[in-house]
# Entry
Amino acid sequence: MGLALLLMGGCLYHSLTSSLEVTVNLLAMGMHGQWRMLRGQGLDLDQVQLSPGLLKRVLKFAKPYRGTLVVLLFFTVIASFLETFMPPKFSEWIINDAILKQNTRLLGILCLLFLGVLVARSGTQVLSRWAGSRIGEGIIFDLRVALFDYVQSMPIAFFTRTQTGALISRLQSDVVGAQRAITETTTGLVGIVLSIGFAILGMLTLRSESGETWKITLMALALVPIFLAPTRRMGKVLQRLMRRQQENNAAMASQMTERFQVGGALLVKLFGNRHLERDQFSEKAGHVRDIGIKSAVYGRIFFVLFSLVAGVGTVLIYWRGGISVITGGMEVGTLVAMIQYLTGIYMPITMLSNIRVEVMTGMVAFDRVFEVLDFPIGIADRPEAHELVGAKGKVEFEQVSFRYPTASEVSIQSLELPGVELRDREQNWVLQDVSFTIEPGKMVALVGPSGAGKTTITSLVPRLYEASSGIVRIDGHDVKDLTLDSLRAAIGVVTQDAHMFHDTLRNYGELYRTQFERAGSMEALTETPLLEP
# Structure
């Protein structure tokens, strides 16, 4: 019996250290993903200033899912109770009341009840996962659709200034990081606190004739500050390493993206030096390699410190609890249960120490999403705008002047290249006091040197840009008084630079069904891809 209990204790210690290693690896992976989301932005969570009222806006965005969120929290509480509090209790009952007393009937009953608890725990975990996924995917959907629709409403000047990759990052990484702040981080924090609470409660409710359980519990909790000290210090080190790694990954990815495009590949072949390109890429990849090695070493040190403290706690409980068992003040099953509860305290603490980074990262992601949604749309419908009906095609320019908007009018600082500041320099006039009239049915050519404003004039009619002064009219209507949809639906444009979506002719035609139906060519569309090998 003594050998069996010794083996059981060794298995529990191995389980504790293995669980800690898994937890540390998950923390490192979490940091990796979070800093990947924020890469290239130069963000330091210790210096982040969140927008006023951000939390209220976040909660408002989660309001449609409040019922499911309540269900999620409920199942999180149940799952935490069944996972942290109950298994050690059954270990105590099975060893003390059934095995040591050789009560086979009670052993069978307890094992069946224990099996029922495990099944119930599995069920609550599945239901909790369902509720969390329903909320998380719903929030991702809402944020992405809102952001996609809003960005599409931006004027052309916004897209000519803004990095496409930065916008895509908002729709992908930031949106996912934002929903994590509501679902995974919130429920994770609740689950961690509950696990620690249930573990401490379980240790205090263990049977002990000499009252040793609460003393051993205090001894185990006394090691918690030792856990937190290296966690905070090492966590910052890992964060810095992950940040540097992602910055180098971004530089490496940028070089690959530019060189692997048709235009970039052509420039390298015609004018570049392939060997120099290789050396530059090798340098960037070497930085990623070196930081990866450091991250692996620091991660192992992180784990070793945790496992050492956990081992010290386990040894202390074995020593103090073992003395109580020998002197008859505590039963063997109670000691085994205490070791199991110890896992329920130390493991969540390692995760709790990193929760600040997760919460702040999620809130920063929300802030970055709202930053785009709050940016004013430069060209939009007026409240009293009306539709253009039965357009004839008369175009009038009356003393129209135009110069391009300043940087701050069309872009956001966080969407600029790292190190590039938005500077509002007054632009030169592209058009000044231009007036003319084009009657319906007339063909008019705009002739002039490059930069004379020919394309600008054609862009002012459908309000791709807004005239700085003067009036642009269609059939006598000021274009600013017309809805954008009806105005642009009445204008056909053949762009200077042709661009085709990678799609089939039929799906492409669905985007422009009205125009195809007018031409009587809708039935001619096939499933033939636009771009064929």
Remarks:
- Residues 1-43, 526-533 have pLDDT under 50 and may be disordered.
- The beta strands are 395-402, 431-438, 469-474, 477-478.
